[in-house]
Each structure stands twice: as C-alpha cells, then as structure tokens.
Design brief:
Blueprint (H helix, E strand, L loop, with lengths): L3 H8 L2 H7 L9 E2 L4 H10 L5 E8 L2 E9 H13 L31 E2 L5 H10 L4 E4 L13 H13 L5 E4 H10 L29 H9 L3 E3 L4 H11 L3 E5 L5 E6 L18 H9 L7 E2 L5 H10 L4 E5 L5 E6 H7 L3
Parallel strand pairs: 1-2, 4-5, 7-8, 10-11
Antiparallel strand pairs: 2-3, 5-6, 8-9, 11-12
Helix pairs in contact: 4-9, 5-12, 7-11, 7-12, 9-10
Keywords: CBS domain, Repeat
Protein name: CBS domain-containing protein
Pfam families: CBS (PF00571)
C-alpha cells in the first residue's frame, strides 16, 4: 500500500509549488561577462537569495548556462589559495575575472539543472537530494501559434515574441518545497512524526557521487566545528577540507554559539579579504549586523516541528544538540527532503 506522503508527492507538481509561492521580485540573474566580484555583491544586495543564474545573450534572448551559488564561491577561494595559512596568500585577481570561471567549480554548477513545471515532486526531490542541488531553474514553454503559422507575417511575430521572452522562468528551491509540504501537512500522514535523531545526515546516503564513503560516514557521525577563538579563515578551510556546507561554532564547553557557511562570503571584495583573519564571531557580526543564534533541535523533535522551524526562521539547517547544547549532528534541507524518498 502506497503511503500518504508518497501519493501526495506523486500527484503534485512543480507548477503546484510555484502557484503558491510568493514571488517577491523578478528572477535575479547575471551575464556571463560580469565579474566574480559582481556575484559576491549581488548575493549581498539580495539577502534572500543564495544563488544566481548565469546567462549568455543569444539572438537577444537569455541563454542560461549555469546557476552559481555560495559554494562555488568557496570552491573558487580554495582554487586561489584557501589552503594557505593566510589570506595574504590568496590571489584576489580572480575577483575581476569573468564569472565564467566559476562555472563547473562544483558538481551543482557543472551543468544547468532545469526541470519542467509538469514534473512530480517525487522527481524534483530526487534531483535535489541525489545530485546535491539546492536550486533548479524551471523552464517555461514558449507558446507556438497554430493559426496560419506558415505565413511570413506570423512567423516574424513569433520570432519577435521569442526574442522578448527569456528562455527560462523561475527558480525553485529546497526551501520552496519544504514550505509547500508544510502548508499541506494534513495530507502527508504519519511521516511528520518521525524523530530528528533518525534522519540527521540522511541525505548522505546519496553522496557516493561527490564524497567517498569514509568522508560521508564521518560527516554523519560528527558535525564539523571550530571554537569561538578561531578565525573566519579557519572556518572556510574546515568547510573546504571536510566537504561540509557549514561549521558549528562552539564555546569552551562545546556548546553551540553560532554557525558559519559559504553564504557568509557574500560581499567579499579585495578590501575585505583581510576581514577573514578576524575572530569568527567578529567577522559574522560584521557580515550579519548582529550575531544570529543558529537553529537547533533535540533528538525527539519531530520532522513536522523541524520543517516548521526552518520555514519560520528562514533557516537552511538545524543543529541536533544534546542536553548540554553540544552539536551531535546537522540536519540540512537535503536531509529533510530525502526522508520523503525513504
């Protein structure tokens, strides 16, 4: 017998999610000739986005080639000398180079991940979790005229319409899907009652394409962390070497105080590279304006509670903590979605 949540995912589509999504602004994108620094600045200026589609102009249309996100920026820093002991060893000339150098820095940007509005949520979640993709470009079909379409006049009109219409429409993110599922929680059944300690690191079961088994197992057992005495530079190096998307920042007792992710690189420019040598909490306060308490949960929190927490707080993860607030796991949006696949 098919479960309620499986039935729901199979019978609802990307179009259903987008129809209920509040669109605060038009799609923010950048041309492939823009500089890398422009990407950092664009992400900083638009705090609600973590990625931007990159396009080439072709016949007055936008031909999208990739989606660049904060993890591509982190990978670029790694290429330019992140492994050195100091930001002074970092080659900052890449910031003035075309954004094309970022394409392919990570698996998610090595190809343009797209989908049709008609695919099911089951298929969409498989794309998200099995390919470590966080956002996908939803293609829009360009209507074809059927009446007298062979006349020169109508052919010219159709070409003009296509020239004015972008070749893609909107981004759909993991957060969009989780928000949609939460709004339809009464249709999902008992899956929402499972406990948080049963699915921390759940998405790592699909990690064989980009992580070796030992690294994936270590990430699942022990979340990556640094102490409050560490520099922001140390956090970036930890993320780079451990293939983690974020690090927990803990006090002398090991209790969770803050977190740092690749998203905290937004706004980096040649003048701010040295800021990475500041203590990590000072750096985060400079970036964020104030130190934000990271989302956390206990072992017996339910999946439904966790989904509600990340949506309400615009979070991208929740740290699984013990009775002393020490992080013992990290539950990402990919983990949450992968639970629905079994």
């Amino acid at each position: 017998m098919t479960s309620l949540h499986s039935q729901f995912l199979a019978t609802h589509t990307v179009a259903d999610v987008l129809s209920e999504k509040k669109q605060g602004h038009d799609l923010i994108d950048i041309q492939v000739t823009a500089t890398v620094e422009t990407v950092f600045e664009t992400l900083l200026a638009n705090a609600d986005i973590l990625s931007v589609p990159v396009y080439r102009k072709f016949n007055n249309r936008k031909d999208y080639v990739a989606i660049i996100d904060a993890f591509d920026l982190l990978s670029t820093l790694e290429e330019q000398g992140l492994s050195s002991g100091s930001a002074k060893g970092l080659n900052t000339e890449f910031l003035s180079m075309p954004v094309a150098i970022l394409v392919g820095m990570t698996k998610s940007s090595s190809k343009l991940w797209t989908c049709q509005p008609s695919i099911s949520l089951t298929q969409l979640i498989e794309l998200f979790t099995k390919h470590r993709v966080h956002r996908i470009l939803v293609l829009e079909d360009i209507p074809v005229r059927t009446d007298q379409a062979d006349t020169e006049e109508n052919a010219a009109i159709e070409l003009e319409q296509q020239a004015r219409k972008p070749s893609a429409g909107r981004l759909i993110s993991q957060t969009d899907v989780i928000r949609y599922l939460l709004e339809h929680n009464h249709e999902l059944g008992p899956i929402l009652d499972i406990s948080a300690d049963s699915f921390a690191g759940h998405a790592l079961k699909y990690a064989e394409e980009y992580l070796d088994e030992a690294t994936a197992s270590k990430l699942k057992r022990t979340p990556v962390s640094i102490t409050i005495q560490s520099q922001a530079w140390d956090a970036l190096q930890k993320m780079s070497t451990s293939h983690a998307t974020c690090v927990a920042i803990v006090d002398s007792d090991g209790a969770l105080v803050a977190e740092m992710s690749a998203a905290d690189l937004r706004g980096i420019n040649p003048n701010r590279i040295e800021d990475l040598h500041r203590p990590v909490l000072v750096y985060l306060k400079t970036c964020q304006g104030s130190l934000k308490k990271p989302l956390s949960c206990r072992a017996k929190f339910s999946l439904g509670q966790l989904m509600s927490g990340v949506v309400r707080n615009h979070g991208h993860r929740s740290w699984l903590v013990d009775s002393e607030d020490r992080p013992v796991g990290c539950i990402t949006l990919s983990d949450i979605l992968s639970v629905f696949l079994g």
